[in-house]
């Protein structure tokens, strides 16, 4: 009978994620990962295959969490447009450390997508989930009259995800909270559409 693994797999993935997030894939050594997870090389290979397998496990965990968090936050506000606004403004409202840390998912795309088809597959799956969530909220906001009748839900979903990703990149490169809030406000105003003309 094989010996049972003497570590918590979920905890190991969380610790590895923190290392990958801080240093990137290429900047992270196997020794750094083993030290962070507190396990031996053979245990890592048995559980994840290799460094790349561990990276994919960490990225998949991160994207699943982010997707669930997005869905929860979109459902938590009575107003669909208000929920979308809260998501975008949340980047500006993050701590300075959180803004500079950025998004692990975006970091993985920038570093790995050009050479790693498995990262691309995970990124596409996460993108589709988030775009669909935004699309549903825009459709509901449109139904309630919070969003202009001219707005195409699918295009708006893609626009909102691109805006959110852009805000996170801008935050990481030092954009001020005021600048981030201005971008979020512009996006929300674009969804609302032009104000109604006053009746004579």
Report on the architecture of this protein.
The chain has 200 residues and is mainly α. Helix content is 74%, strand content 0%. The chain has helices at 9-23, 30-37, 41-48, 51-75, 80-93, 96-101, 104-112, 117-143, 153-172, 177-192. Helix 4 runs parallel beside helix 8. The longest helix has 27 residues, at 117-143. It is elongated and about 60 Å long. The relative contact order is 0.11. Residues 196-200 have low confidence and may be disordered.
Quick structural gist:
This protein is mostly helical and 200 residues long.
- The SSE order reads HHHHHHHHHH
The total strand number stands at 0
Range of strand content: under 5%
Categorize the overall geometry: elongated
Mean pLDDT: 92
Characteristic terms for this protein:
single chain, 200 residues, mainly alpha, 10 helices, 74% helix, elongated
What is this structure's SSE topology?
Layout: H1 9-23, H2 30-37, H3 41-48, H4 51-75, H5 80-93, H6 96-101, H7 104-112, H8 117-143, H9 153-172, H10 177-192
Helix pairs in contact: 1-2, 1-4, 3-4, 4-5, 4-8, 5-8, 5-9, 5-10, 8-9, 9-10
């Amino acid at each position: 009978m094989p010996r049972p693994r003497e570590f918590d797999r979920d905890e190991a993935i969380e610790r590895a994620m923190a290392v990958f997030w801080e240093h990137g894939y290429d900047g992270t050594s196997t020794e750094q990962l083993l030290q962070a997870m507190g396990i031996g090389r053979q245990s890592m290979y048995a559980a994840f295959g290799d460094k790349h397998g561990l990276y994919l496990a960490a990225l998949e965990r991160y994207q699943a969490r982010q997707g669930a968090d997005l869905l929860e936050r979109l459902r938590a506000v009575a107003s669909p447009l208000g929920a979308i606004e809260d998501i975008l403004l949340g980047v500006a409202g993050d701590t300075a450390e959180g803004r500079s840390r950025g998004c692990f998912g975006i970091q993985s795309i920038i570093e790995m997508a050009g050479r790693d088809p498995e990262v691309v597959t995970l990124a596409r799956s996460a993108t589709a989930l988030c775009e669909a969530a935004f699309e549903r909220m825009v459709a509901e906001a449109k139904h309630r009259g919070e969003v202009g009748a001219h707005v195409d839900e699918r295009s708006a979903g893609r626009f909102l995800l691109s805006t959110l990703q852009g805000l996170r990149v801008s935050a990481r490169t030092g954009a001020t909270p005021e600048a981030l809030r201005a971008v979020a406000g512009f996006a929300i105003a674009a969804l609302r559409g032009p104000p109604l003309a006053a009746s004579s």
